[in-house]
Design brief:
PTS cellobiose transporter subunit IIA; membrane; transmembrane helix; mainly alpha; transmembrane; elongated
Length: 170
Amino acid sequence: MEQNAKQQRQQYKKEAAVKNFRYNRYLLLRYMLALFFFTNLYWALGLVLGGKITALLPGFLIVFSLMAVAEHVKLYGAKEYESKKLHYNRIYHYIQLSVNALMILIAVTGIGYSSFFPFLETTMKARVMISGILAIGSLISFACLKRMQAIDQQKDKHYHYIQEFEKEMK
């Protein structure tokens, strides 16, 4: 009886290890999603406190990021990856990339700048700084999209590590 319980615990530990290993495949995507969530949250708060209706834009991004977070929660128990499982995540990063490009255009031209960034000065230095931050955000979104593509094609490093780990666990 004792031996059977010990074997069940070992089997559970193996299954949990494989499940966690699979879930860690999306670690970068989860962290970047959290980064964008809080960035958009602070941007929205700045706009709301400034009394700007443009707060709807970061609010919209927050809602979409929450939908992408829900996808990650569903991925925890998934045994196999299907590209449909990151549908909202992919849409979110395309939207975030588009919004960043639009905000860079607004910062560079100065047209509507005070509507979207009322908490920043309208000096060229501030506009260049915000353009740089938005460019970094664009690169992060692009990297996340590339990572999802690699996961779809099972060309990411984690996929090979998972395969080796599962072989050793058998």
